[in-house]
Amino acid sequence: MVRWLTLAIGLCICAAPAWAADKLVLQLRWDNQFQFAGYYAALWQGYYAEVGLDVEIRSAITPERKVLNSITEVSEGRADIGISAADILVARSQGAPLMVLASIFQRSPVGIISRRDAGVTSPADLSRLKVFYEPNGLAGVEMRAMLSAEGVDFDAMETVQASGGSGPYGFFARGEVDAYPGYVWTALWSAKEHGIDVSVLSPSTYGIDFYGDSLFTREDLARTKPDALKRFIAATRKGWIYALENPDEMSKTMTEDLPRTFPVEDLLGFNVFQSREVAKLTLYPLINLGHTNPDRWRRMHETLKDFGMVSDEFDERALIFDPEKRKQERAAQLQKWLTVGGVLLLVFIVSVLIWNRLLRRQVQAATGKLQTAYGELEQRVRERTQELNATKERLASTFDAIDEGVWDWNIPSKNVIFSANWPRIFGHTMDEIEPTVQTWLDMLHPDDMPLVMARVEDHFQGRAPVYQSEHRMRHKNGRWLWVLDRGRVIERDGQGQPIRMVGAALDISKRKEAEENLRKLSRAVEQSPSSIFITDTNGTIEYINSKFTQMTGYPPDEAIGRNLRLLKSGDTPSEVVENLWETIKSGQEWRGEIKDRRRDGTLFWVYETIAPVKDERGEITHFVATHEDISERKSTPLEGGSQDDADA
Q: What values do phi and psi take at 497, rounded to 5?
């Protein structure tokens, strides 16, 4: 209660008079949860009041448990602003005059949920499972689009449709389906509560990159209240920044102060869990909150049209609320007409001057001087242009000569300049690459994104001197490349915020493959049932495996660095030893039986194979040997040091 009184007093102080504030009703799309934290933060922190707005936030769930549709509420005038996603395009196709204000979630929360023991690692794996599907559900559209992109025949799959009001999770929990498309934050939480170990396929991994929660309004409000809507968007962005930077505080406050019609057993835990998932969807701070790319909405429209969900033509101007862009277009048109008028006026004046005999000489003289000056200026421009082109060609040649792909990121504008080698690494041409940071994000492996974003932010905040990351990026042919990406901020503004960052990417897939092969080889050697050791050319031990220690009794700290003489029994004939060294030093492999001595002094027979290791020039650098204990195969039993080596 104290917090509410404090908030009310603060609003009275900082807000405009109630009679002067613009009243707006925001319709949520579900029950109160962290999914809507940014809007409540903007309300509670007074951001809406600061810009002269009186905002009412309505839950989508009535006390009678009726679920309100945000599209319907806004279209029919009971709310001014709503939250939805691809539904906006469907509603527009059906005649609803709606406009997108801002895309808050840069990623769709839809994922394909399956039991982990089902072994689903790619869309193709779904073809052997029973999958829940709602024909009119947009989550199902994203799943079908993903399957289509990967060449999986959806019509040949076994699907189960809803009946009797049962939701997809009920089918899944009861084991009636093996997988279903749903919202990740709800699915993962429900699975956790029921002890079900699940895995998730994200359609965005396969190029189906829908926006998630987006703000929308009616076209008539966009025309009559553009300024109020702009203020609403700006205050909402501040609210979301506050919520994302203070997730635990917002989770606690929402749990304590907001009623929820559909109960959750551990509501605080659910809100905290959801705050982590929401942060991934906003891509903050890498992407400006609310950034809206018309081309992505165009691609969403094309996907919905392919599946018969929409039938109209895409109209960017009618869909996207962007008064600044429209203002610039009008200004450009006005400037165009002013330019044409100016040119016509200039032609008229020059004509008068030319035909005016009294000023003809002055005009001719002035014209001559202008032509001379223009010629000199034109020459300087040509020379400077040649110099710049030469410099540009030298830089391009330099970049093309190295294996790394160089990038130059203008952080505020989100634009990126790529060298020709950058798209070449991923199998693209320059014409196929859009020069924006979104291109990089679309190619980045979703599982690597949180770590990469954290390293970018560490460098932005000065916690790391450079940005450096090893992560996976998608090649044009669909496979994942390992990339070493490095960069440094080279320009900041007066407040220390990064403005420009340059860096380079290097394909390290072969190195990663070699490292993995080396790890496999190392494990194979270490786990070998045979004793294995490596020496230099003088017989000094440099490596032993665990079987060597088990066979001889010498641990690594007592064997490595010592000569093989520590195993010498004294019973092996000298001619055998001489033959061994002559053979391996000549580059040949030697095999034979030798009697060795263990750490405790006992003698034992081994069958030994020693081979030389050569470098790229063919010179011997090391010897690798395997030991096999054959004491039990020898006819004469051995006693430590006391038996005569008659068999040698």
A: -80, 140
